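Pasting as-is:
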Amino acid sequence: MLQDLIIKQKFDDMVNYAYVALNHFPKYQRHVMSAEIRLLMEKIDELIIRAQKQYFKKTTLQDLDIAIAQLRSKVCRARDLGYLPTKKHELWIRMIVELGRMVGGWIKAAQK
């Protein structure tokens, strides 16, 4: 149960940072790529809550892992396109990788 609370807090910290970073996207991308990233973060939030509440977590945790990988991919693409400065990208990616590791540990714990 403690793992559940920690991952939710880490996710919330990442989202707070992400919203600030997304405001620095070019105006023409705020409604396209920025919106896609926001929707993906909402999906991750929903999957975290669902995984916390469900008894059988395996499928939900796998979906969560996939969504985190998609988020990482989109953030890297934003950096490659020049929408995100390198320092903001590095910090954001570190947060995403940490979430991914926590979900990986959660998956292993759920399999036992």
